């Protein structure tokens, strides 16, 4: 009997957004006491109802503190199945990632958290019963993954700057090889600037700009919002970009001669408000890390 094919699925467990190869959704998980009226975004696991992705969860000290990111992983698998990337009942290998700063210390625990003993894992999502066997979980540094398929073309000095929801990772690459001793993680983040915008709006106008509006404005430059609010957002985003560029310089990175590639959820902000030069480029697809994890998992296999 022929052994069933193994499918590789990249998932980026963000502090704001969950990303897979084909999907992006907020990382909210709400446990429900009773069955909800609508099946949309509803996950049923071990007899408990959850609403998935209808808001952003608060940032956790540890993603392993509860089952939220495991439940979000199941929802991501269901969504990839819905889009035809994997069949229901598939054997899967997950490609996932962690910030550079925590990679060495958290990797094993994160793999164990996602690859549970009871297989296959069975659950219901949006009124469809799913079953997947998680054969393995492979973890990679998130900054590295976003450019993994491009490393062979990187000649000379490169800085890969992953501007994420809760951290900024900086990876130094020389002739296509990451220089581990020069990899760094900083706590400046997109979540912090979003909170700053909300606070300033409340203070100045007596009205907080909804987070969904801020994210929409960051993602879509042509949004038609009142000028007083867009001006406030522009000022805060410009200041954020200057802080990011300052972090690079303050930590000894030559931003004029090194090639810089901005990746992650903040890459669009860096492209819109940052310094432009021939040595600076941007990977603005927020799914780049997830796609990188999937690529790397497949390469290892």
Automatic annotation (TrEMBL):
<dbReference type="InterPro" id="IPR040607">
    <property type="entry name" value="ALP_N"/>
</dbReference>
<dbReference type="InterPro" id="IPR043129">
    <property type="entry name" value="ATPase_NBD"/>
</dbReference>
<dbReference type="InterPro" id="IPR049067">
    <property type="entry name" value="MreB-like_C"/>
</dbReference>
<dbReference type="Pfam" id="PF17989">
    <property type="entry name" value="ALP_N"/>
</dbReference>
<feature type="domain" description="Actin homologue MreB-like C-terminal">
    <location>
        <begin position="160"/>
        <end position="270"/>
    </location>
</feature>
<protein>
    <submittedName>
        <fullName>Uncharacterized protein</fullName>
    </submittedName>
</protein>
<dbReference type="Pfam" id="PF21522">
    <property type="entry name" value="MreB-like_C"/>
</dbReference>
<feature type="domain" description="Actin-like protein N-terminal">
    <location>
        <begin position="56"/>
        <end position="144"/>
    </location>
</feature>
